[in-house]
Amino acid sequence: PILPLSEILVALGQIIDLHVLLARHGWVAGDFYDGCLMYDFAAREIRFMDLECYRRGPYRNEVGRLPGSTRFMAPEEFTRGALIDGRTTVFNLGRMLAICTDRHALPGGLAALITQATAPDPAVRIQSPADLQARWRDAVA
Predict the structure, then answer these.
(1) Alpha carbon separation from 36 to 28, 46, 49 (Å, rounded)
(2) Is 55's pLDDT higher than 90?
(3) How far apart are CA 74 and CA 140, in angstroms?
(4) DSSP letters for 56-106
(5) Could you give the CA distance from residue 19 to residue 14 in angstroms, rounded to a whole number?
(6) Separation between Cα atoms, residue 50 and residue 37, nearest integer Å
(7) What angle (nearest 5°) sits at the alpha carbon of residue 22, between those of residues 18 and 25?
(8) What is the pTM of this model?
């Protein structure tokens, strides 16, 4: 079933909250995509799994294409030598926001937030999961 936007936004907020907590402890997302999530429709709860590819960061991409679902991956996850950091996590989260809300009219500045979170150039992206969280809360308030 398709959830109402209000429920989707609550679940997405929980996903962002988790990544803020992980970032505080030095973790950078790796192989984060919709398959890492399970939504319990009866309980209206999101569950997280398959976070084993998360790494302490920042770090350099030493292999070129990193593991992951292409539609969620930041450009630096394809580039040997690129810096993988909180801005990479922001891109991954931005793609999740875009994909999960694509059938809905977005409130306030949410579309602009998603655009900035998924900017190809990390320098112009929202700079950290915590910054994304603050802007997210303003956009959905």
Answers:
(1) 15, 10, 5
(2) yes
(3) 24
(4) ESSEE--SSSPSS-GGG--GGGGSTT-EESHHHHHHHHHHHHHHHTTTSPP
(5) 9
(6) 8
(7) 150
(8) 0.95
